[in-house]
Design a protein that fits this description.
single chain; mainly alpha; MetI-like fold; 83% helix; 0% strand; globular
Length: 266
Amino acid sequence: MVFTRTNDASEPTKAGRGSRISSPLPGQVALILFLLVLWELASYYLYNPFWGSRPSLIAQRLWQLAISGDLWMHTSTTLQEAGAGLLFAAVVGVPIGIGLARAPRLARLLDPVIMGLYGLPRVALAPLFILWFGIGLFSKIMMSFTMVLFIFILNVMEGIRTIDKDQLDLMTSMRAGRFYVVWTVLLPAIVPWILASFRIGVGLALIGAVVGELIGSNRGLGWYVESSGGQLDTTGVFSGLIVLMVLAMLANYLIGFMERKIVRWR
């Protein structure tokens, strides 16, 4: 009788590799193309393009803006405003969240103020920010900053609450310093929460920048959308909106890529 050796463990490994190799990107691209084709056909048979434009007209407008250099000017302005506000919120919000989580009495004392400010519609602050900081970049950065700050604070606080207390007690019994505990226990535990805050904050930071541009600015995608709307130029409005959507999608893909690398490192 002859026995043949079979490696049963290799089959799931191959399946795992195949599942890892397969990517949803082709399906996502196909879905977007399908929706664009439907939009194009609907503009010919269902409604007047004046009201909703069409993808072909938007592509032509974006090409014209790219050739003239206006596309890069408006896009870079909005990116600077949203990106700076998002990073500033992370730099300020993460330490505050860690500090409040490590000081529960202070957190309970400040909880009504934090939740009140978090629930305040920051869009209503846009006119004040324009009045205080002018129509330059800084007012839009502050608008994006306030839109995202509390997302980082609350997420970091919640992330620290999920840490195993026995692990912290072990560090305390070993007389580990506060900096060592933060570096080896707290930060690795809250990394997913920080990345989740970035995912949520990308859209909010763009909203803050665009709202600031709508209130008072002379450049940026928000300004271009408002200017096009004032001229009843729906193609210009949709062009600005499409660019904002692409920026949000690319930012989320970038954060997702970083998240996979960091989680693998952890």
